[in-house]
Automatic annotation (TrEMBL):
Matches recorded under Pfam families: Lipase_GDSL
Keywords of the record: Hydrolase, Lipid degradation, Lipid metabolism, Signal
Highest taxon, organism lineage: Eukaryota
InterPro entries assigned: GDSL, GDSL_Est/Lipase, Lipase_GDSL_AS, SGNH_hydro_sf, SGNH_plant_lipase-like
Signal sequence, start to end: 1-27
An example molecular function term from Gene Ontology annotations: lipase activity
Protein's name according to its UniProt entry: GDSL esterase/lipase
GO biological process: lipid catabolic process
């Protein structure tokens, strides 16, 4: 399994433990501990898990991280913070540590954890070209392992309370198109399915992942749709003739998003509760994508060939906080925070 290849510079680790060891007591010592936050998905929210793996999907060299507080690459696919980090900020918390991080123990567990791994998709066969990545089912296994450790640390009742009261974020699905179906002209999946049939197949495979999260105790889960898949610089370079966003990838996202919304609504109906909150990533499309070829990281959407700048990530999260039901349904993140604080 993935953890076998973890390499730790032990001296550095010892120093870090000495510096940061006391941290986390803060969360535990306060009367009102911060809400735990759990993150699942792909490179849009990976906080460094892939640094611990033998994989081609990595962001551990400069200039990644150039605007991160440490100005060092951390494994995040951005110049600075990603969407998950900025949501942590809104909760009033530290970014959740990657599940493979050696410091994720003790009171640090109370903040939550980030299980995301760049390159993964809904399907197990997405991202095979990256070799070692933590696929969605493995992310769920790591969450089970996390829960066992949390129970050992705070007891079963408290652990359940922490997980039931937590906020969850799931960002996945783009790679099932970009790094699977459309990766090469005659991919196995595109030989097997028309796009029209592939999208419902993906949704049908996504559903058990989400219901497993529910079974494991998640009660408030943000699920993002696909952003404008045809507009990142990599796709413009490969598929666009006149700088317009690549048609078939745009079409894929336009088919996927409403079917995802429908599935989330059905799940909420089944559970008789608004467990799932759908986020429409078209938030980015209209007012934002201007000229991705220019790489001014304070003015433009894309930081690298696929991933957003911190600035763009902040705009996404600000919209999650305040947008109307057209973009985030059944309610926005600031409403969720108010509602859940009363429970
Ligand atoms: C994906 O892999 C997991 C095991 O790692 C398995 O339980 C699951 O059924 C697989 N999904 C599909 C659709 O094959
Ligand atoms: C979303 O959030 C804002 C607060 O930022 C609130 O005023 C608004 O009513 C909320 N809900 C909707 C559906 O717009």
């Amino acid at each position: 399994m993935a953890t076998k290849k973890v390499m730790v510079p032990w001296m550095l680790l010892l120093c870090l433990i000495m510096v940061f060891g006391a941290f986390g007591a803060q969360a535990a010592g306060d009367n009102k501990p911060v809400r735990a936050f759990f993150v699942f998905g792909d490179s849009l929210v990976d906080a460094g898990n892939n640094n611990f793996l033998v994989t081609a999907a990595r962001a551990d060299t400069p200039p990644y991280g150039i605007d991160y507080p440490t100005q060092q690459p951390t494994g995040r696919f951005s110049n600075g913070l990603n969407i998950a980090d900025i949501i942590s900020e809104k909760i009033g918390s530290e970014p959740a540590l990657p599940c493979l991080h050696p410091l994720l123990h003790g009171n640090r567990l109370l903040i939550g954890a980030n299980f995301a791994s760049a390159g993964v998709g809904i399907l197990n066969d997405t991202g095979i070209q990256f070799v070692e990545i933590i696929r969605m089912y493995d992310q769920l296994d790591f969450f089970r392992k996390y829960q066992r450790e949390l129970i050992a640390h705070v007891g079963a009742d408290k652990a359940k309370e922490i997980v039931n009261g937590a906020l969850f974020l799931v960002v996945v699905g783009g790679n099932d198109f970009v790094n699977n179906y459309f990766l090469v002209p005659h991919s196995a999946r595109s030989n097997q399915f028309s796009l029209h049939d592939y999208v419902p197949f993906l949704i049908s495979q996504f559903k058990p992942i989400l219901t497993t999260l529910y079974d494991l105790g998640a009660r408030r889960i943000l699920v993002t749709g696909n952003g404008p898949l045809g507009c990142p610089p990599a796709e413009l370079a490969a598929r666009s003739k006149n700088g317009e966003c690549a048609t078939e990838l745009q079409q894929a996202a336009n088919m996927f998003n409403p079917q995802l919304s429908q599935m989330l609504k059905e799940l909420n109906t089944n559970y008789k509760r608004d467990i799932f909150v759908g986020v429409n990533m078209d938030i980015l499309q209209d007012d934002f994508i201007t000229d991705p070829k220019k790489y001014d990281r304070n003015q433009y959407v894309f930081w690298d060939q696929y991933h957003l700048t911190e600035k763009a990530n902040r705009i996404v999260v600000d919209k999650m906080m305040s947008a109307s039901a057209d973009f985030i349904f059944p309610m926005n993140l600031s409403t969720i925070m108010v509602m859940d604080a009363k429970v």
